[in-house]
Description:
Blueprint: H1 26-36, E1 47-53, E2 59-67, H2 77-86, E3 91-97, H3 107-123, E4 127-134, E5 137-140
Parallel strand pairs: 3-4
Antiparallel strand pairs: 1-2, 1-3, 4-5
Amino acid sequence: MPIIAEVSLAYKAAQSVETLPTIASPEEAASYLRSIWDSDTLEFREEFIVVLLNNAKNVLGWSRISTGGSTATIVEPTAIFQTALLGKANSILIAHNHPSGRKKASTADITLTKRIKEVGSLLGIPLDDHIILCANGYLSLREEGLM
Length: 147
């Protein structure tokens, strides 16, 4: 019988929960995202990030899911939830930028958001918000009622 490798998954926090930033509003989300986003790419190419949150809305970590061109990036929900599951997230926040500076959600943005929200509901990892970050501000799809 062939030997099959055991799959081992582990997550170990790098710091105590008390020192982690908290995201409880779209304003806090946009501020946090600006602190981690490479400002050189904000107006250059589209990127997609997932932020992992615990029950207290503390940031457990974040991951860049994809990087695209000046008008789009490809996002696979499996990559988002693989990260969320491995990172022990209780909920997630997703974000991408619009290099054009346009603070308006596209049909594709809305469709993707609804798809991620549905998958999250099935997995028990709710989607808190989808932030579109621009050089001149941001848009919260939750605040706009687009989720």
